[in-house]
UniProtKB/TrEMBL annotation:
Similarity field: Belongs to the CitG/MdcB family.
GO molecular function: ATP binding; glycosyltransferase activity; triphosphoribosyl-dephospho-CoA synthase activity
Protein name per Swiss-Prot or TrEMBL: Probable 2-(5''-triphosphoribosyl)-3'-dephosphocoenzyme-A synthase
Encoding gene per record: citG
Keywords carried by this UniProt record: ATP-binding, Glycosyltransferase, Nucleotide-binding, Transferase
Length: 309
């Protein structure tokens, strides 16, 4: 992880929100750039998608940065008392819907990051709420608290594919992940990422291993919506097999990866839910190890478009 990403968060709410939004944007761009990923957009190509590519996904991430900054600012400014939490939940809900509208306008109506807006919107708000408690479990717990507060202004039904998959297959989906404190991020993706690093595996392979760990365990509504329960079994079993064979660090693992990718492309399925959770893990992973406040002047001089000098 770049040292510049580990700078302490600024004390000023506005500077803190700007920094956190930059970290979200960099996590989203790193996720889509990570290659190879089975069925997903990466620098090699479009995966199982016909309407997405790397350039569009990066443009979407950049378009969403102001929405994440606004959500982080709300988290920093609105009090943490119980009465204020409803106001915060409804504020970030509105900001998320506005962010989704901006995304769709920027992409010509294509859903690039709807799930990421939900997950990372909650997490960036939670991180900004308590900049001295930035451990992954603590941030995820605060995000879960927000997720479990009903938003009176949210649509009762969206009609989105993920919502329909939840209803059809009885799975929790993105809302279930958030309400439970993002267990596939804190208990699956991050441990896999850190264990791979500790084993000396290079960073891109470690990130792919974290993705595969989530794919092997997650009832991914993106897969269910496209291919049903049979496709989900192929994805989960295949991802587990790649990891059991040593992942991309071994010849056997790379062969198993190619087999999994061929099956997923034949089924036209893409693990978009797992990709969103990987981006969430990358965001939490790069939060500062130290919560000591940095000066606003330092932040203003050092911040760049993607959160690194």
């Amino acid at each position: 992880m770049e040292k510049t990403l580990q700078r302490p968060l600024p004390a000023s709410p506005k500077a803190r929100a700007k920094r956190l939004a930059a970290l979200v944007e960099s996590a989203l761009i790193d996720e889509v750039t990570l290659s190879p990923k089975p069925g997903l957009v990466d620098v090699r190509g479009n995966g199982a998608h016909h309407d997405l590519d790397w350039t569009l996904m990066v443009h979407s991430a950049q378009t969403l940065r102001p929405a994440f900054e606004a959500m982080a600012l709300a988290g920093a400014q609105i009090e943490t008392q119980a009465g204020a939490q409803l106001a915060l939940r409804e504020r970030i809900g509105r900001l998320g819907r506005e962010g989704e509208a901006a995304m769709l306008d920027a992409t010509g109506g294509i859903n690039t990051h709807r799930g990421a807006i939900w997950a990372l919107g909650l997490l960036v708000t939670a991180a900004s709420q308590a900049p001295h408690a930035l451990g992954a479990a603590a941030v995820a717990s605060r995000a879960a608290h927000l997720a479990n507060i009903p938003d009176r202004f949210a649509p009762v039904s969206t009609g989105h594919k993920g919502e329909r998959a939840c209803n059809d297959y009885g799975v929790g989906g993105a809302k279930g992940q958030a309400s439970a404190g993002f267990p596939h991020v804190t208990k699956v993706a991050l441990p896999a990422l850190r264990q791979a690093r500790a084993a000396g595996i290079r960073e891109d392979h470690a990130r792919v291993d974290a993705l595969l760990a989530v794919m092997a365990a997650l009832d991914d509504t993106c897969v269910l919506a496209r291919g049903g329960a049979d496709a989900l079994r192929v994805v989960q079993t295949g991802a587990a097999t790649v990891r059991a064979e040593g992942g991309l660090a071994t010849a056997q693992g790379r062969r198993a990866f190619r087999t999994l990718e061929q099956h997923m492309l034949a089924l036209h399925v893409s693990p978009g839910g797992a990709a969103d959770l990987l981006a969430a893990a990358l965001f939490l992973d790069r939060l500062p190890a130290s919560a000591q406040a940095a000066s606003d002047i330092e932040s203003a001089h050092q911040e760049t478009e993607h959160g690194a000098s």
